[in-house]
Amino acid sequence: xxxxxxxxxxxxxxxxxxxxxxxxxxxxxxxxxxxxxxxxxxxxxxxxxxxxxxxxxxxxxxxxxxxxxxxxxxxxxxxxxxxxxxxxxxxxxxxxxxxxxxxxxxxxxxxxxxxxxxxxxxxxxxxxxxxxxxxxxxxxxxxxxxxxxxxxxxxxxxxxxxxxxxxxxxxxxxxxxxxxxxxxxxxxxxxxxxxxxxxxxxxxxxxxxxxxxxxxxxxxxxxxxxxxxxxxxxxxxxxxxxxxxxxxxxxxxxxxxxxxxxxxxxxxxxxxxxxxxxxxxxxxxxxxxxxxxxxxxxxxxxxxxxxxxxxxxxxxxxxxxxxxxxxxxxxxxxxxxxxxxxxxxxxxxxxxxxxxxxxxxxxxxxxxxxxxxxxxxxxxxxxxxxxxxxxxxxxxxxxxxxxxxxxxxxxxxxxxxxxxxxxxxxxxx
Length: 429
Hints:
The chain is an all-beta fold. The protein has three domains: 2-132, no CATH class; 139-265, Immunoglobulin-like; 278-393, Cupredoxins -  blue copper proteins (Immunoglobulin-like). It is 3% helix and 42% strand. It has two helices and 36 strands. Strands 1, 3, 5, 7, 8, 9, 12, 13, 14, 15, 17, 19, 20 and 21 form a 14-stranded mixed beta sheet that branches. The chain has a six-stranded mixed beta sheet with strand order 26-25-24-28-31-30, with no helix packed on it. A five-stranded mixed beta sheet has the order 2-4-6-10-11. Strand 13 (137-149) and strand 14 (152-157) form a beta hairpin.
């Protein structure tokens, strides 16, 4: 390995020679780490003076190895910088003396803490990372590449096929589009899946486009992309806000490149309706009953058992008998339960009920007009036997009355021959 000995003055050094040791002397030296265009290995040895390592804006770090008094940093294009006597350096994050830019000054321990590491007393610790210097801070970096799949070109972010992203409001995220495979695929972000290819637009707030370190418009950014152009310093920087919940990244030129990928902000959980658990046919029997048919079972005004989190379709053919899901077993439209319910009060068509996790244990279905067309809905966390329809008529929720031969026997009622109830011999009424 070749050696370059520096002077005893206050030197400014940009280490660019591959396989070279840069050896500092007594001066206060500044080393500006810039990634090379091809794989390179650079070593810095400097234990005298007040020396500074500068990492200019857009410097990318892929991995870091930390020893008690040394660092090994792997940057983009696989440039490896080994810093001996690293504990004696200050670290200017985002600074660049060549253009009088001053970043954030860190001590050795503060610098390695950025990567959630602590310098060990012996041996080494390391971490794979993917971060970039932006606004004097390390930001999460997504390296954008494009690969051809069976259904066309697709985005790969950090070598993963169109992943969902979990971002936090107030944080900045950097999308690096400098890989040659992305040269004709400018990325943007929209509130609409597939963006402009689906009648949507790119977000207007929190997104910035950069070329060669300069902020540009979306139009200027996209016009720089072509199949024959390799870009230099092409980045999209995005800072979601608290008002953002679910967003989508997409290609400004081509549709479908991100598949169904989503950007979920601040832990937002998308409520994806479950595939309909079952379809329940509901018809009226005159003005006396609702007749339910589902999963091979059929009953008039039965008790239903529905499971929280599942979705049910009620296919209604009951013209003149508005079907309500309610918290009370009363006619009219009061007491209606609308959480997760679409088309409550419908008499003909499809009523959909996605049962919320906090739905009460008991609900009712009720005809708006006829009080005898009603039944109970039991809401459960799981339904082991899977049976939705209980053949027991549930329109009467009062305490049960003793029965005989399927007929109610109420001792307060005087039976007549007209009722055609003939008790068995020997039974006293």
